[in-house]
Design brief:
By secondary structure, the protein is α/β, with parallel strands linked by helices. It folds into two domains: 166 residues, Medium-chain alcohol dehydrogenases, catalytic domain (Quinone Oxidoreductase, Chain A, domain 1); 142 residues, Rossmann fold, CATH 3.40.50.720. 24% of the residues lie in helices and 27% in strands. It contains eight helices and 18 strands. Strands 3, 5, 6, 9, 10, 17 and 18 form a seven-stranded mixed β-sheet that branches. Helix 4 links the parallel strand 12 and strand 13. Helix 3 runs parallel beside helix 4. The protein is globular. 47% of the residues are buried.
């Protein structure tokens, strides 16, 4: 099979032929990948944002859709022919060991779920079955972007009706945070980004106010939410000075939720944390895939929720480095890789 491989930190991925293991281990599932999303987490992996990468060379990708081709011993959650979402947050089922592939005669590492390949061996608990009539092109959004965004609103921030929500970074996750905030009747819902096109898209998903990042941004935000600050401030960028701004603009009784992973230390005045102010890092929105993905599909069927226009670009696997370059530029929504 063909796969995109990270062989060297801060370098392009290598698209090459990879050999699958001959047998599946206990709890493993072989999935034919139809579509994969690209997330900022893959950019962090490529750049080794969390430190030295000890697993090179390895495969990447943690949100995708596909069809089950083979199951290992012990697997009962899925069967051959099932349509599935691949997600990085663990659900029910066996926590299987990561697969070991071969590339150019040497071991190629993998996590319990990877999606930048034509086929993938996945741990049973990283799969959720979806209806066969659901669009597999849109299904990768359930692997990370949607559960993370909706989980930030529902699980991490626990936004209440009428609370103000401020979102920094209106990309794939930020758009869905806006949508989720609208669905729980937050108001106002303010988006801040450097890209006007993203902000315009955000208004279609729930933003009541859109602001271009720059000079006097704090003053503009406080003019909307009031001098005391926003009830909930959410950062998706991982940029240290943006995180600091989000924290400063949070009400003394409010919550700052960090979705983006900073590459450097941040500086904050911590005294308010001793009272009612909360600063919290989100881990995928604390999502529970088996429970939440079926709910989202049901909402979409009933036209209470929309995936329309979230995907802005589609590439082939051979073009994955161009897709990553576009994602880095900030000029896209969610990008999808279509496998052959």
């Amino acid at each position: 099979m063909k796969a995109a491989i990270l062989n060297k930190t801060r370098s392009d991925l290598i698209v090459d032929e990879v050999t699958l293991p001959k047998e599946l281990l206990f709890g493993q599932v072989l999935v034919k990948i139809k579509y994969s999303g690209i997330c900022g987490s893959q950019i962090n992996e490529i750049d080794a944002a969390k430190g030295v990468d000890k697993y090179l060379p390895h495969l990447l990708g943690h949100e995708g859709s596909g069809i089950v081709e083979k199951i290992g011993s012990g697997v009962s959650k899925v069967k051959i022919g099932d349509h599935v979402v691949l997600h990085w947050r663990p659900g029910s089922g066996i926590e299987a060991p990561p697969a070991k592939y071969l590339w150019r005669g040497r071991k190629l590492n993998s996590g319990r779920v990877t999606t930048f390949s034509e086929k993938s061996i996945v741990s049973e608990n990283r799969l959720t079955v979806i209806p066969k009539n659901f669009n597999l092109r849109e299904a990768p959004l359930f692997g990370c972007a949607i559960p993370t965004a909706f989980g930030v609103i529902n699980n991490d921030a626990k936004v209440k009706i009428g609370q103000s929500v401020l979102i920094f970074g209106i990309g794939g996750v930020g758009l869905n945070i806006a949508q989720a905030a609208k669905m729980v009747s937050a108001n106002p819902i303010i988006g801040v980004d450097v890209n006007k096109k993203k902000l315009n898209m955000g208004k279609k998903f729930g933003l009541t106010h859109d602001l271009l990042s720059g000079k006097n941004i704090k003053k503009k935000i406080l003019n909307i939410v009031g001098f005391s600050g926003a009830d909930v401030c959410i950062d998706t960028t991982g940029i240290p000075n943006v995180i600091e701004t989000a924290y400063d603009l949070t009400h003394k009784d409010g919550k700052t939720i960090l979705v983006g992973v900073p590459s450097k230390k941040i500086k904050i005045y911590s005294l308010p944390l001793h009272f009612k102010k909360i600063l919290k890092g989100s881990h995928g929105g604390s999502a529970v895939p088996d429970l939440e993905i079926p709910r989202y599909i049901n909402l979409i069927k009933r036209k209470k929720m929309s995936l329309k226009n979230l995907i802005t670009h589609q590439f082939k696997l051979d073009q994955i480095n161009s897709a990553i370059k576009l994602l880095r530029s900030g000029n896209s929504g969610r990008i999808i890789i279509k496998m052959s």
